[in-house]
DNA sequence: TAGACATATCAGTCACGGATGATATATAGC
DNA sequence: GCTATATATCATCCGTGACTGATATGTCTA
């Protein structure tokens, strides 16, 4: 039998792990550009490629990732696959992020710990 | 002179870059555990080390990163440095993230594209 | 069924960034 | 000033994950 403390530890660890994965899913300019492109309307992979400038395999890979994470969902229509945001609350998340950024923008911008890549 | 389109492109690129950096700052379990520890009260580095189980240099490194990004601010008090969340909206961000996760939790959990490390 | 188009997968390369151990800096007390 | 404690920095190693080019799968049209 596990103590309450241990149980709470595990719950917390799981929460952190999930949050980490979610944020990691969002911690990529390519994926963010895809999500942004999908903000207003569903798009085919070709359209996404055209808008974002990503290579087709690259876009496809990111879409698979986003899809597996549930952030995006794809629907086959003939030869095309139309992707859409699966949760509109992503927009809220971006709005909140931008709020945070307007307050700490310079800081994040000038932080040299990791690049923009 | 730049066209409007080009200007908008650059603004968008900057936005994406900043968002990417913000999310990357949050895309690490160690940093998330630090931010979580600081959610209720300011803490010294030693306390953070004790709570999170991180090594002292590692915690210090992450704190520098978080500090440079403006997510956290430190204040020297004698031999100690007390860190605090610099923006309480981080809590809102985590709440919103957890909302998203409860809807897409399984998906993110089982997504094999990147590990929990 | 053949050929064209849309998307997905695969193998390989490469850089970023997180962790560690050792060490440096700084502040307090004696 | 000397020692102990608290925190920061440094060099290094190593794994993860993003990108590319080639290729496979799948779907439509003729």
Automatic annotation (TrEMBL), chains A, B:
Assigned keywords, A-Z: DNA-binding, Transcription, Transcription regulation
Signal peptide range in chain numbering: none
Domain HTH arsR-type: 11-105
Pfam families: HTH_5
Keyword set includes Hydrolase: no
InterPro entries with a match to the protein in the record: ArsR-like_HTH (IPR011991), HTH_ArsR_DNA-bd_dom (IPR001845), Metal_resp_trans_reg (IPR051011), WH-like_DNA-bd_sf (IPR036388), WH_DNA-bd_sf (IPR036390)
Molecular function GO terms recorded: DNA binding; DNA-binding transcription factor activity
Protein name: ArsR family transcriptional regulator
Species this chain originates from: Aquamicrobium defluvii
């Amino acid at each position: 039998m596990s103590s309450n403390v241990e149980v709470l530890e595990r719950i917390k660890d799981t929460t952190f792990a999930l949050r980490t994965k979610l944020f990691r899913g969002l911690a990529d300019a390519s994926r963010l550009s895809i999500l942004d492109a999908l903000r207003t309307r569903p798009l085919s992979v070709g359209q996404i490629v055209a808008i974002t400038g990503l290579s087709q395999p690259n876009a496809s890979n990111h879409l698979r990732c986003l899809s597996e994470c549930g952030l995006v969902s794809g629907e086959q229509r003939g030869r095309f696959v139309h992707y859409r945001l699966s949760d509109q609350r992503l927009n809220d998340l971006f709005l909140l992020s931008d709020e945070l950024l307007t307050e700490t923008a310079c800081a994040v911008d000038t932080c040299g710990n990791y690049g923009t890549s």
